[in-house]
Amino acid sequence: MKRLIFSALMLGMGLSNLNAQVAYQKAKAFDNVYVGAAVGASTNLRFNSVFPLNGMAGVKLGKNFSPVWGANIEVQLPFGDNNFANSHTFVKGLSYGLNLTTNFTNLFKEYTPERRFELSTEFGMAKGIIYGDPDLVIPGNWGDDDELLGKAGLIFAWNLGEKKAWQLYAEPQITWNLTPGPGDCVRFNSNYALAALMVGVNYKFMTSNGTHNFKIIDTDDLNNQINDLRAQLAAKPKEVVKEVVKEVIKEVPVSTNTVQEITIDNLYFVTFQQGKSILTAENKKALDNIQAGRHVQVVGTCSPEGSKELNDRLSQARADVVAEYLKGRGVIVDEATGKGVQGVTSNRLAVVYVK
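Above: the chain's sequence. Below: its structure in token form.
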């Protein structure tokens, strides 16, 4: 068993490395959050007294940290008299706990937001409370009616809708009472376990990038575009500067007493990854060539993908991050403006004009 688990982990690590060139747009704290509700039925794991089945209901609040890994907080309520011999309330108990999820479809296959079917696992721990059973409050059980529960589930999920915001799932699961007594010692025992089948629906809230799922960034394409741009700048600096100035800056404010020619020497180009406004170490090294005390104008741009509102905000963020870095080095920033999409090419740039 240990060898099987170890082999599975190594295989997962290997497949993850195969997808190392795939990146996802940076998620904010409340991105990729979902809420769900489910109903189902349970019986004892040994199936020696299956009927009548116990009804169950539950709710979840979860977050996917990546297309593979996630977690959720779950509350479940059991109904029915089977396996709750001395509980006389309508709701027989309550459990609440934390589950960790692993999406095996995305782990072993390349993630795509359009995927219809996904297979996941869910493992967790919970606190269980049983209502209305006076026999539980006995010295051999340390005088309490709450229990430590362990859960394992297999989730078959179907992503629905044009934007895949809704998810219908079926989850067969096993819940163990780990502290059945005496003395609340922890142990796995099928006599104190329930098998259940839950059917539910999740709603995935819209993220900051305007989708309901993770947004893929093609890093190979991004690197190729950056390399092409660098090659163009190295091969034809004057022609490239002329085109970029025409599309991006258009009107460069200069002193009425001084006319300065725009050349490659007083223009600095900062490239960004798609959808991001983060300065790399290479970008900072280039900006360090601008001397403190010089006056500059910063113009941010972006590529045609995305809505106008998103592109305007992104281009301004790129201009601002360059301006803040320069200000920290004593450079005087006269203006930092985001111009949105300029032209039809992938202008994921911030242009610094040194006056």
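The CA atoms of residues 176 and 193 lie 4 Å apart.
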